[in-house]
Amino acid sequence: MNLVRACPWQAQYQWKLRELWRIKGLRNIHRQRERVEDRRWPGWEVVVGIEVHAQIKSRKKLFSEARTAHTNDAPNTSVSCFDAALPGALPTLNPKCVELAVRTALALNAHVQRRSAFDRKHYFYPDLPSGYQITQRYAPLARGGHLRLSRGDVTVRITQLQLEQDTAKSTFHAGRRISLIDLNRAGSGLMEIVSEPDMRSPEEAGDYVRTLQTLLRAVGSSDGSMELGSLRCDVNVSVNRYGQPPGTRCEIKNLNSIKFVMTAIASEVFRHIELLESGRTVTQETRGFDENKAETFKLRSKEDSPDYRYMPDPNLPPLLLSEEYTERVRSSMPELPSETRGRLLSMGLSERDADVLMTIDSGREVGFDGEIGKGAVAYFTDLVRERDPKIVVNWMIHDLLGQLASRKETFSDNPVSVEHMGELIDMVQSGKVTGTSGKTLLRHMISRRSLDCPSKLVKELGLVALCEDDSSMVKEWCLEAIKELPQQAEAVRKGNLPVLNRLVGKVMKLGRGRANVETVRTLLLELLRES
Question: Can you give the pTM of this predicted structure?
Fold first, then answer.
């Protein structure tokens, strides 16, 4: 008699287990890429894959009505009964988290699954009150996809994107020798984005994380802030001789900056090479990263799926997404970084100017539930209407952003509205104020946080450009400049024309920038020839 009780879900999920094992095997069959010798480790090939955990920017948590906590909140103040794993508390899926995850999947060119399911991943740790994490190991929200890196002709394939809940935060108190648990983060929505092992250097890995950060911010699904812990990376690293099978991989957990990602990979590569060259073997294990020593250290031996005792979550039905739903999300997608860059270049901007705008724009505020904050690109787009894009971008990058930087402020601190900035540019282009006076006016608007329109400020500050009838005044300033700078004047008379700029600067200072530079230059040369 067969006394083994049949598991009711085993037959249903058996094919998924076989598919997972097949995919896991395929991960060891790396794409053939052109060999590029790295002088740091000649003769060795580095293989890197990354699992990114990005916190979803939703007002509420993934499976409860509790609001998503802010880093400044007091500990254990944003916790529901379900987050604390109290008996009888049941999960309720947040549809906004699903929508933002679908946005991310579409942006990564992944295939959104019409049917996905939630699993319980069992492990016992103080920051996991229920003793299991709800995730999507076997039937993820999306499969496939790719992400093209910003440098070189490198495309990283995406294995899958899955929804899962975040854990609580544990903090070790050295003085009291205890660990403190904050449940504010417990249950917050996460997207786990798993890449194929397609990266071949620490720099490519850093570029991958940076490019993914920009993408997440662009679609509004996550702020991607590694400093605040809303984006963390688990990096898998292996090393092999060129032409040989891939080596044993080790996973480095919870890296929270791009610099640490790159440093940890390099450290692990050197460790693997040292072991192999001394005739020893690399043991598959999970490792941490010591930021002070810039080296990895062993945490535990690497777990496999059976160690976590995965099982379908009985309290959550399968997630069914229709084609109509996916297309509706696709139609409401914001502009992706590649599309934004193409649009800026089509306006006639240089690649450098487009990159500067997009770099500044990547730091814009990301609102909750997919609300896209307005950044530098949106500001430029509104400002450029019926104006020359090259002139507008010069004012933005060299003057507006330059003056903000000199005050150690970012673009988010910009007090100048699109309307006022546009009016200032129009006044300079029409000749009502000179370029020098325009920069002085902009400096005043930023430093004083003035809300008055530029046309009013120009009159109050006496920055209106001089007309042709005021040539006598310009002549007086030129004569005064020659008198105050006799050595420079004599040098110009002897043919040293570059020194003329000193005299021009002096005249512009006397006239507070109201005189036309070319008119001043011409008049100075005439006066110096006559004297």
Answer: 0.80
